[in-house]
Amino acid sequence: MGKKFFITSVWAIGAAVILSGGVEPLYAAGTGPDPAVVMTDKGAVRGVVRNGVREFKGIPYAQPPVGELRWEMPRAASAWSDILEATKYKNACPQVSRYGLTEASDTEDCLHLNVTAPYANRSDLERKRAVIVWFHGGAFVGGSSALYPLDTLAKFGDVIVVSMNYRLGIFGFTAHPAFGADHNGGYGLEDQRAALRWVKTNIAAFGGDPDNVTIAGESAGAAGVCMHILAPDETTGLFQKAIVQSAGCLTPLPSLEDGKKIGKKAATLVGCSDEATALSCLRKKPVKDLLDAASTVAGSSIVTYMPVIGTKTVPLPGAQAIPAGKFVPVPMLAGGTRDELRLYVAYAVQAGQKITKDNYSDLLKETYGKNAGAIAAKYPVKDYPSAPSALGTVWSDFRSDVGINHCIYLETSKLIRKSVPVYQFVFADRNAPPVTTNPGFEMGAVHSSELPYQFPHFDNTTKIAGPDLAPASQKLAEQMMAYWTSFAKTGKPSAPGSPAWAPFTADDMVMNLEPGKVGYFDSGAAHNCSFWKTLYPNILTQ
Q1: Does residue 219 carry a catalytic annotation?
Q2: Per-residue pLDDT tens for 81-128?
Q3: How crowded is the C-beta side of 487, counted as CA atoms within 13 Å?
Q4: 312 and 184 in one domain?
Q5: What are the tens digits of pLDDT across the range 433-464?
Q6: Catalytic residue among 219, 389, 396, 486
Q7: How many domains does the chain divide into?
Q8: Would the pTM of this model clear 0.90, i.e. be above it?
C-alpha cells in the first residue's frame, strides 16, 4: 500500500483501484485527489463537499430485492462503469405511514447507504478515522436513513458516519414456511450485515478505519445491534464496539415457528395460502397489497414484526447466548430515555383511546395480566399528574413483551459486563423537543427524544425539520456527542469538562444525561427493578 498511480483520465481523478490489500486512492497528474470522488469496489462515486464534510448518499450496497430476490439473502450490488452520482438520499424501503407522522414508501429498490466524512483540507484524505455505522429505528416496519443528518456528528467527533436502508416489515422481518430455512425472517438483519461487509471492504477509500467500526442504533436499530452481537458466526470481525439506544439484548423474541404463523396469516390475506406455491405467489403480489396485509395482521400491535430466534441470523436468545459466551464480545455503550413508552401512550391517546384513573387498572391488566394488582399498588395513579403519564411510567420501567424498558436494559448490561466493559446511561432531558403533537399529558424524555442531540433537526419525516435545541439542551448534546464519538474511537466514553464515565458495575453507576445534572444515579432504584424482578424472575435473573 502507499503507491500512487499517475493518470490523466478525468474520470479517474480521485478514484481508486482495488489492490491486494484493499481500496487505494488514485491521483491525477499534477492535481491530487478530488475529494468528492471515491472508487468503491463496484465503481466510482461522486458526492459533494460542503460545510466541512464530504457527503456520499445513495450508494447501492446490494441489488434491489425484487422478483426472485424477494425474501432472499442480499446479493452484492452490480458494478457500474460511469461515475455514480451520490448526492441525494435514495428510496426508503416499503412501509406504510404510521401515527400520522412517518412517510409511506412502495419502492423495493431501497438497499443504499450513505457515508459522511469530515473534510477541512486535502490532508484529511490521508487520515484514518474511526467509523460509526448507524441503523435507523422504526419498530422493524418503518423509518429511513434520510431522516438522520450525519454531518454534525461526523465533524464534532472527527469520525466517519455511515447509515443505510434495510428491508422492513413483511419484506424484512417476516418468516414463512416457504422461505429459506437458514435466514428465514431475518432478511432485514442480513441487509444490515451486507452493509457492514461493504464497509469492511470500502470504508478505507473514504478515510475510515475498517478495523475500528462501531455499530450503533436506536429502538429497532439498536435491537439490530443486539442481533448482530448475538450472531458471532456471521458477524465476528465486522465491528469492534456497539452502541445500543433504547433496546435490550435480552428482550424475549418470537421463535421461528411463531414467526411463520404471522407470515402465513399475511400470505393468506393476499391469496397465497398454499405453502407449496406460496413463495412464487407472494413474489408476484404488488407491494401495496403486501403492506396492507401486513398492517391488517399487526393491527395495533407494535411487536408483530420482530427478529425471530432459531436460524443462522439469530441462533439463540440473548438470555441463553450471552451466559454461554455465544456472542461477539465488544465494549458497549447502552441505555434509553427516562420516559420511553409515554410516547406510545401518546400515540394511543391520539388514536382515540381513553386512559383515565377509572380504567387504569384494566389497562394494566391488558399488559400484565395477573400481576396488574401488585403493579397498581406500586404505581398508584394518584401519585402521577395524569393516568396516561402513570401508565407510560409503568411501561417504561418494565414490560415483558416490549424490549423498550429500563429494567431489561440493566439486565442486559449486568450479563454483558461479565465479559466486556459496558457504559450505561439514561437520557433524562424532559425539555427535549416534542416527538409528536401534544397529547394532553406530560410527555417528558420519551422514546427517540435523544435523537436530535446526535442528529440536529431530526424529525420523523423528511418534510419537517425539528427545532433547534434550547441552550442547556445544546450543551448536553455536545457532551453526548463527545461521549459517543470518543467511545467509538477508543472504547471509552469521555467528554471535556464533563464527569468521568466508568464502566457499569452496579445500578448506581448509570450516567444520568440531564442538562446541568450529568453524573451517576441509581437507575435500578429509580425504575423499581427489584420490584419487577419479584414478578418476572424468569426474565430479570441478575
Answers
A1: yes
A2: 999 999 999 999 999 987 766 788 999 999 999 999 999 888 778 889
A3: 28
A4: yes
A5: 998 889 999 999 999 999 999 999 988 777 76
A6: 219
A7: 2
A8: yes
